[in-house]
Amino acid sequence: MTLAHPAYAQVREVTPIVSVMLENNPGMMTLDGTNTWILRAPGRDECVVIDPGDADEEHLARVAALGPVALTLITHRHFDHTGGVQRFFELTGAPVRSVDPEFLRGGGDTLVDGETIDVAGLTLTVIATPGHTKDSVSFTVEGEGTVLTGDTILGRGTTVLDDTDGDLGDYLSSLRRLLDLGAGHRVMPGHGPELPELNVVAQQYLDHREERLDQVRAALGALGGTPTVREVVEHVYSDVDPKLWPVAEKSVNVQLAYLRSLD
């Protein structure tokens, strides 16, 4: 039987190299749950794990059992991707690499934009894709036309920019950088199902951001004065379930900061 997304607690092969185990932590910010990606070169025993997930002992144990794990990589700092880092390190002993030094384990070094990682018969390239968070990165898999995008691009819907350290200018640049990879790349996102064409979805994301910016500009003009973030959200996101407005406020905060930077 061929598994399809979502498939919890099961290894689902996506390509000859890339498989995924979906963590059972669905929610407003995680969609169906966190995708933990497992990369294994044909004929090799060792694998590379990307984003072990949050502190879910059963999930972490299932992923660790797929080892031996040669290396663990982190796409960004959010807990649903990193909460299980320490426990996963204890289970596997595999070094952990990330942009944020907080998650380094086992002698793992900080990830550097543009570097090539040769490990377990695989060649991965690090692409800095900040915007969702300051430390966000994506990874390409040589020979596969595969890009693991973390939360920079999701399997459905659009990404919320974290108003703690997210930046819309950075995010737009990151989307353009992914777009420049060209056609023929599949998206392996941090949440949601994989997507067939990176360049198509990256362009859709760019178009969406430009549309939202136009809507925010129009809202500022229509509301006049100095409206609150919630007032802008209620104007721009009137077609969205109000339960999601607190999340939308994060993106609007980032959008307003971006517009102020253009003045």
From TrEMBL:
Gene3D superfamilies: Ribonuclease Z/Hydroxyacylglutathione hydrolase-like, Winged helix-like DNA-binding domain superfamily/Winged helix DNA-binding domain. SMART domains: Lactamase_B. Residues 33-191 form the Metallo-beta-lactamase domain. This is Putative beta-lactamase. It comes from Rhodococcus wratislaviensis NBRC 100605. InterPro entries: LACTB2_WH (IPR041516), Metallo-B-lactamas (IPR001279), RibonucZ/Hydroxyglut_hydro (IPR036866), Sec-metab_biosynth-thioest (IPR050662), WH-like_DNA-bd_sf (IPR036388). Pfam families: Lactamase_B (PF00753), WHD_BLACT (PF17778).
